[in-house]
């Protein structure tokens, strides 16, 4: 059985990713403990976190002079909370990843990286760009963060079809359903510790034959 992950969840909005993780934890589908919720601003997600009785901090980015000083404050809180990993759950503020958190900060992006990602590509912007390009599939990507927008080693990806009559709203709903499966699956893989990061690749170690990943998605995880 995999160990229980201690995680911090960083948010900037409604806290939908946080809610999904808490539901998975309550259903015993994810062995994790949310030790800290940190928000970049006052938002609905803060209220949800507080109602759930979670340790909650609000660190407004505008109160810090630059990315470096803000990042230092964020990761100081994470260290004090003793977390194993940091999960970006719709966190819209750029972070500089310190050395002790390399390959310990996880993000989920609503496209198949490297498509439709980078600065300014979040929320509806991603799905509008995908529809404008006429792609036939979209999806989501769980990856380790390295300080660049939507960059870093890919942990896993899930795909969804793009339909002829899709709107940004309908595509977003389908992608978010995939996100709700992909992020807990990635965290479960991480909890095993049976992986290694080689440059831009995340690979399973040879003694990971018994690892299973929920199969709700039509594609296999990107870890090999």
Descriptive labels:
globular; 9 strands; 7-stranded mixed β-sheet; 224 residues; two-stranded antiparallel ribbon; alpha/beta; 5 helices
Please, could you describe this protein's structure?
The chain is α/β, with parallel strands linked by helices and 224 residues long. It is built from five helices and nine strands. A seven-stranded mixed β-sheet has the order 3-2-1-4-5-6-7, sandwiched between helices. It has a two-stranded antiparallel ribbon with strand order 8-9. The two termini are 21 Å apart.
What is the percentage of strand-forming residues?
Answer: 15-25%
As a percent range, the share of helical residues equals 25-40%
The coarse overall form would be globular
Record field, number of beta strands: 9
Distance, first to last CA: 21 Å
Element string (H = helix, E = strand):
EHEHEHEEHEEHEE
Largest sheet geometry: 7 strands, mixed
**What are the segments in which pLDDT stays under 50 over at least 5 consecutive residues?**
208-224
Supply the helix-strand structural class. alpha/beta
The strand line-up of the biggest sheet is 3-2-1-4-5-6-7
For the CA atoms, what is the radius of gyration? 17 Å
Instruction: Note the total helix count.
Output: 5
Overall mean confidence score, pLDDT: 89
